[in-house]
Design goal:
- By secondary structure, the protein is of the alpha+beta class.
- Helices cover 47% and strands 33% of the residues.
- The protein has one domain.
Length: 88
């Protein structure tokens, strides 16, 4: 599970949320299920709901881009992430 805080644009509206992404890998093929849980920490609820469209759409586009990478590129990014996480 990956958990992080996100400030949604426009930043002066102080809309901040906690996001949790969990990935479940199935044994058959390269099939994954992703769950996204969002919790509003600050800001107006209506702005939070409206601006999450863009956050979720950007996340979706990143996942589509990831899907287009080769296995070797996946491995390289994985190694890079491990190195960065060790430094924290």
């Amino acid at each position: 599970m990956l958990r992080f805080k996100v400030a949604l644009a426009p930043f002066e509206m102080n809309v901040v949320q906690q996001a949790e992404i969990a990935v479940l890998a199935y044994e058959i093929g390269r099939i994954y299920a992703l769950t996204l849980r969002l919790k509003r920490l600050s800001g107006l609820r209506d702005l939070w709901v409206a601006n999450n469209y863009y956050f979720i759409d950007d996340l979706r586009k990143q996942l589509l881009l990831w899907r287009s990478l080769s296995v070797e590129e996946h491995r390289r990014y994985g190694e890079r992430a491990k190195r960065r996480l060790r430094r924290q």
